Amino acid sequence: MKTRLQIFCVLVTVCISISTANARPKSTKNPRFDAAVDKALTWLNKDLSTREPDGGIQVLAAYALLKCDEPATNPHITSAVRAILGRTNSGVYRPTNQYEHLYMAGVDAMLLSDVDAKAYQPQLQVIVNYIQSTQRADGSWSDLPSKPGDISMCQYAMLGLWAAQRAGCQVNPQVVEKAADFHLRNSNGDGGWCYRPGTTEGPGGGNSTHNMTMAGAGSVSIARFLLHGQKAKEKKETPDAEKKFGVLEKVDPMAEMTTGAPIGSAFRDFKPGISSGALDDRIGRAFSWNDARFTPVSRVEHNLYFYYCLERAVAINSIERLGGQDWFLAYGEGLLTLQSEDGSFPTYSGPVSGTAFALLFFMRSTQQIIDKQYGLGLQRSNKGNPFGDKKKERDPTPLDQLLSSIESQDFESIAKEEVSVADQLILSIQSIKDPEELVGQVDRLKTLVNHPEPDVRQPVYWALGRSGDFGLIPLLIKGLRDPNIDVAAEAEQALRYIARKPQGVGLPDTPITGFKGTTDEDRLKHVNLWRDRATRAWSNWYSEMRPYEERDGLEQLEVLIPGGNDVKEKP
Question: Exposed (0-12), middle (13-18) or buried (19+): which is 189, by Cβ within 10 Å?
Fold first, then answer.
């Protein structure tokens, strides 16, 4: 039998071989999808080398390459950037194809923003000025002056505005709201959108289509994101009599996430006339339309266009299932059927654009943008202090003094004080101005999860969640099995906070939610079932989402091993 060290060495050798063969570090986390991406990348790089630069399609392809972690020095990316600079350096945006002017403006802005937002901010401002100047009075955009607005052009205008806003450009919030209003007023009664509202032009002849419904949902979602921020979990008021730990119960982590840039509204001083609820309702209707017509293999002429529209709308709205299935797996398997033997994804507008759309789907390109804005998840490679590694001498803070008291087991004297230890710990953390101060206390907090008093363990899990350290997730998962149900619930809330998943993994907020039994034995069984389900669900999520460099092929979490041992609840 091979030793653990031998297995590890084999895995390292395999990883080095793979790295040498393919330097792309990002993974779809699905071997079949990874293989499809590798073939598509090989084809795209080769095909672009035989073509003359072709405006927007060239830039779209370069953008897809960048999202696959191709370096910005890739000749196709540098060539696309040069073409964009040629369209912007005069101070006025000059698209080379008037029919595709907004498609071009949108992808031009997206590429510059992701290559180097700071360096190309002047050019991005030129592009956003053009997009805003071409918006019609009704809030739409169109390909030609003689034609009414169309949902597809609107989509790329909104993508351009969003890209420029991320780069710090001046974007007019009224333009964004007018675009949202256009979509709300010009949708079909069934919940979807057609190509050119008010006409029978284009695919569908005025009827809703998959392409336009997901394009419209994406545009409204961008508007919602810019005007109101990411959708937050609804806050439920807890009666005072049920607030065992007053401050703990009052804190809503997702509310904190939506109170300021970059997570909240992009326009702090602008008060939208369209409510977030109206936008959320319209987005929900679009997804309901799509679910009722669940079709993982797109059969329309612009079939690859659909997948990138879908990925964007899903990512902004943090949706995990469509048609009752894992959307990424279901639609990804459908997309695989559209790949040619040479690795390309042909579509009505040509294999370059089709292949680019497929890559943007498989690499979850919009999710990459959101992860970068949040500074979270797979985009964070630094496994140490996320706020930097600088060292400095400092005077003891109230948090230091409180932790020292707890560590010295002088809990009884602290508990007798007017303010409870839980409240003291939470208030100390809320007063922190330098995030490094909390991160620097993580090691001390980790030891306190084993403190005999639940009044200490519960706020400790709360504090660990506020550190934002992705590496703490295994410890928090173990906290789901804490013998005290309030502590276990707090560990689950901390997981939601670090993972930026306000709805969690589909489980009730607390272990006793939904309990209908009458005996203590029934209550314990109900709570243990919640513990088992929560442990498995969060373990599976972490197994899929932990950074690639932390996966060594060997089991790292004890919690992933089926246990089945019941926990005896303590007060």
Answer: exposed
The residue type found at 287 is F
- Residue at token pair 């989402």: 545
Closest by Cα among 494, 230, 519, 470 to 370: 230
Give me the domains of the chain, ranges plus CATH numbers.
29-232+257-377 (1.50.10.20), 419-560 (no CATH)
Rounded CA gap, 186 and 173, in Å? Answer: 20
Tokens of 421: 């230890």
Residue 3 pLDDT greater than 70, yes or no: no
Phi and psi, residue 321, nearest 5°? -135, 140
User: Which residues neighbour 303 within 8 Å (Cβ) at sequence distance 6 or greater?
Assistant: 338, 347, 348, 354
Percent of the chain scoring above 70 in pLDDT? 72
The pair of structure tokens assigned to 279 is: 């936008």
Task: Convert the pLDDT of each residue in 411-445 to its tens digit.
Answer: 555 444 544 555 666 666 555 545 455 555 777 77
Residue position matching structure tokens 């804005």: 373
> Which residues are within 8 A (CB) of 198 and not within 5 positions of it... i.e. 6 or more apart?
148, 186
Decide if 40 contacts 345 (C-beta within 8 A).
yes
The span from the CA of 263 to the CA of 226, in Å, is 9
* Other residues' Cβ atoms within 10 Å of the Cβ of residue 559: 20
Round to whole Å and give the CA distance between 410 and 427.
19
